[in-house]
Amino acid sequence: MALDRKIAYINLSTGKIETKPIPMEIRKKFLGGRGLDAYLLYNHAPQGCDPLGPDNPLMISGGILTATCASATARTHIMAKSPLTGLLGSANMGGFFAPEMAWAGFHHLVITGKAKSPVYIWIHNGRIEIRDAAYLWGKSTTETQWAIREELGDEDIKSAVIGQAGEKLVRYANVMTGIKNAAGRTGMGAVMGSKNLKAVAVRGTMDIKIAHPIDALEYNKRFIEGITSAKVSGTQGSLGTPFIWGATNSWGGLRTRNFQYNQMEYADDIEPERLDEIATETIGPHHMTGCFGCQVHCRAQYKIPSGPYAGKYDEGPEYTSLGAFGSEPDCRKAETVLTGNHLVNQYGVDNLEIGSMIAWAMELYELGIITSKETDGLDLRFGNDEALLEMVHRICLRKGWLGDVLADGGIPASEKIGKNSFEYLVQVKGMSNLHSDERGTPGLALNIATASRGSDHLRSRPAIDLYHLPEKIMRKIYSNPVPYDGPLSSEHTDYEGKPWQVFWHQNCFMAVDCLGICKYHTVFLGATLPNFEDWPKVIYYNTGLEFTPVELWEISERCNNLERLFNLREGLTRNDLKKGDMLNHRYFDEPTKRGAPDVVGLTIDRQKFKKMVDEFYNHCGWDKQGVPTSATMDRLGLNLEPSHLL
Amino acid sequence: MEKVLTVDYQKCTGCRLCELVCTVMHDGISNPARSRIKIVKWEEEGQYVPMICQQCEDAPCKNVCPVGAISRDVDYGFLTIDHTLCIGCRSCVSVCPFGAMNYNQIDKKVFKCDLCGGQPQCVRFCDMKAVDFVAADNMTTIKKRNAATRLYASQKHATAIQEQI
Amino acid sequence: MANDSEKLSSAESLRKTRTFGKVRCHNPSCMERMEPSPGAAHIKCATCGMEYRIYWVRPDLPRIRGPVWEVNRKIAAEALSRKLSTSKSKSQVKEGVKDGVR
Q1: pLDDT in tens, C63-82
Q2: Model ipTM?
Q3: At residue C6, does pLDDT exceed 80?
Q4: Is residue A30 located within the same domain as residue A110?
Q5: Cα–Cα distances in Å, from A81 out to B20, B47, B163?
Q6: Looking at the partner chain, which of C57, C91, C98 has a beta carbon nearest the beta carbon of A238?
Q7: Domain tally for chain A?
Q8: What residues in A contact B106, CB-CB < 8 Å?
């Protein structure tokens, strides 16, 4: 059964491999996936360790539901100390890797040390082997995956790999599987690269016994119907995440030209519907594909229609590629977006971060803070499609002065570029935000400021805040599974009640990541999708473990607090612009210039923002500095951490 | 009434939920190696083709079986293995032109699609209807209509162009 | 109870509140529900005047493709200049002031 999947410790310096069962006591406290990874990180990462050094442990995991008879249990979670932020590194990807790893007998891997030369890890039905990867070094993400299949002679092998960006230690290189599934954020690919680890390949045919199979099957049917019948799933399954980009642009929540604007007007050629037309023309009417066991199928397929890469097959683009190669650099050609998306997938780099870096450099170039001397003659102005794509190559391969500097991430780059370049860098904890603009939405601004892995939308974003839901419906969602009778506002421009919503979503998304399922199957983009009350049934039918909704909530709180403890240990302080829960001054000082009548002219109010953070900390059980209080540590049983039980 | 499984591979999103529910239904286990349906993929091109048992009329698996363990179900028309007779020689696995007769190395048994006894779970869970379960005397009606619609539309388009000229 | 399969969860009970065939105005202070006529390419919000291009995901599922830029840009520019004239300094332009175009 799912609970008998093991954990493996792999030391690449010594070649020592050890496997262990995961004790039930640990399962009940941390479930699996991100939660258990957080436990492992807190226990195995030495304080202050070099993120690119051999001591930094790299965790790769599936959730407790991975590969069971539940919906969309495709997610792979990867955790380590981040080379981009120096704090928590954590990233999550879809595809087929984690289920295959579960059928191969493992839920969790802890990889330490550094191999003398490039290697990859091969896991097959309980056996683990470290193999030579010299012939794979320098290959792109997809070339690597196909080459491993060929070498081992099995087309069903799934691999989590790095591309050239990871090898070059670009500090926001990602780990990828399949064509475009990417554990994108916080530079987990650079951690793999620093260990000389090119790939982890898995293949399994081991049984996972379902505790109550017929009930699990029937309940899964009901669960799936709840998801596929939601309006958001229909749109998502037809246009993919670009639909969010389109909607966000419509009202003025889209970061454009590195935060100069909050809307990109007349972008007809890269609107989601236009991309859908290109996909239809180049692939056919059925061009949506999905991750393991998922009925939403939100990933588009396409071929690049024109230009030097014409005819290349790829998947996506997602919201972030539209942001990175559309609105942020102010480029309006579908060809550029689709080509840029292809390049980042091949190089294995976070499209979000690289797009933000280039847009930032473009603003600096237009301001004269960097000149053609730093760009080696490249005319790096906004709207220059060729310069944009050239910068992708330069960063991923660390070519030229600017390419090399930007590959180190925003804060180190700002120190090298100097002058007042830092003021224009839109980041939290050293990581760029989704290409969205939160000046009109205080709840979302609080989310990015306090997210555990740096500015991020997938940790606690109350995205349904934008739907203007009636208060009755808001109450029904947000006062479950624990009661809440404080303020809640349907207005997304308000500050009232937002801290609770962010707190609620922080727990909700942690639970999802522990289960190993996708966030499109919970209250993220759709208000009527499953949450705490629904999951205990799925867990019970599949694993036999019984939890109440409140117990799941507590597990989420526990895991979130562990992530917080790790961040605090590595130097997070509340108001630190580089390592704290603080927004760039542009959020407070520069009013928005575009958008719907209520959004135009808005900033985030400093005092009200401070009050929101206070209130959020209070909900979390943290003091005014954001440190968990001893009462919170007691309540969640964290006093003995690190407890080294695993 | 006899019904058959049909596949429209262009609709398949490659999610493999069918493989999962197949093994949970039959074995109470999640393990695609036990699945009677298998999605064959060309990932580099994004093409996915669900492979199923065709329940052949002149079935090689049935013909080759030395002990007569394979027979046809009278109600639904699928081919079924009698494991009390089966000697595990795997001749049926070798001879099946579709790779739809499988061998399970854990239980040491051959296995194949039995249409879940008339309620195929792969069909029930496939939202795209890439696999469908239709009346045998009616299986080409939808295809005919789709093809006819294309012809009809292009004819209308051609007429419109002629009128413009 | 973990295995109480009959009872509807909160999320399941909320599903009856879904409104198919409608979209909501993207103006935050408006958010009026609008029902485009089947197959319509445009819709104008009767409450606030914003205009949108419509895309049909399915025949029963319309979505806003984007603004009619000329119209909405003008409304935004008017709103901004009104806000700037009613506040002494830019830094006071912060609140989600209810807009006059309602």
Answers
A1: 999 999 999 999 988 988 88
A2: 0.95
A3: no
A4: yes
A5: 35, 37, 69
A6: C57
A7: 3
A8: 205, 207
